[in-house]
């Protein structure tokens, strides 16, 4: 139960090192997009790669070549989806969430917070960590597609072009004071 033989340990060591090298080579070939901040699709690919690595390492019925092919297929599919989502809005809508406006012109948007499962304190923490002392100083806080918060301060010319792809709140959305 704790130890069968040295062959199994040697196989795990050799296959582990070779599979690790293969993953690094494949990820380097595919470029920076493969290693970017994760959206839901990227997380699925990452989990699948980890699961494949574990299977290759621990299952003697899976050959190293099969594991490397599985890595290549997963990374290739991720590249295809990233390529397609950069070119077509429909694919982008399918694989990526849209950013969510959580605070607008100093007002916390309660419905948006509930829908995104974010506590008001998390928004306040994001505002503080961006160097603002008052919520009223902030133009917007956006929950990005990768789960991070972006805090947008006021622009000198009043422009909000960085918020162009963020859905705007309806008239009843400003229901909470940012006090």
What would you note in describing this structure?
Its main location: membrane. Keywords: Cell membrane, Membrane, Transmembrane, Transmembrane helix. With 179 residues, the chain is α+β, with helices and mostly antiparallel strands. The chain has two domains: 6-94; 100-163, bsu07140 like domains (CRO Repressor). 51% of the residues lie in helices and 8% in strands. The chain is built from six helices and four strands, in the order H-H-H-H-E-E-H-H-E-E. It has a four-stranded antiparallel β-sheet with strand order 2-1-3-4. Strand 3 (140-143) and strand 4 form a beta hairpin. Helix 1 (6-30) packs parallel to helix 3 (64-87). The longest helix is centred in the N-terminal third of the chain and has 25 residues, at 6-30. 14% of the residues are buried.
What are its keywords?
single chain; 179 residues; alpha+beta; CRO Repressor; 2 domains; 4-stranded antiparallel β-sheet; 51% helix; 8% strand; UPF0702_alpha/beta_dom_sf
């Amino acid at each position: 139960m704790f130890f069968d033989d040295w062959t199994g340990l040697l196989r795990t060591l050799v296959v582990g090192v070779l599979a690790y090298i293969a993953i690094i080579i494949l990820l380097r070939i595919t470029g920076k997009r493969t290693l970017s901040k994760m959206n839901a699709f990227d997380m699925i690919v990452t989990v699948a790669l980890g699961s494949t690595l574990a299977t290759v390492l621990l299952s003697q019925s899976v050959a190293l070549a099969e594991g490397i092919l599985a890595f290549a297929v997963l990374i290739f599919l991720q590249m295809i989806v990233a390529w397609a989502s950069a070119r077509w809005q429909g694919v982008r809508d399918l694989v990526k969430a849209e950013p969510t406006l959580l605070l607008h012109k100093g007002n916390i948007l309660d419905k948006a917070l509930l829908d995104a499962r974010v506590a008001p304190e998390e928004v306040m923490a994001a505002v503080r960590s961006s160097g603002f002392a008052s919520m009223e100083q902030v133009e917007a806080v956006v929950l990005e597609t990768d789960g991070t918060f972006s805090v947008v301060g006021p622009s000198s010319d009043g422009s909000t072009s960085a918020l162009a792809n963020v859905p705007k709140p309806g008239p009843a959305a400003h229901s909470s004071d940012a006090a």
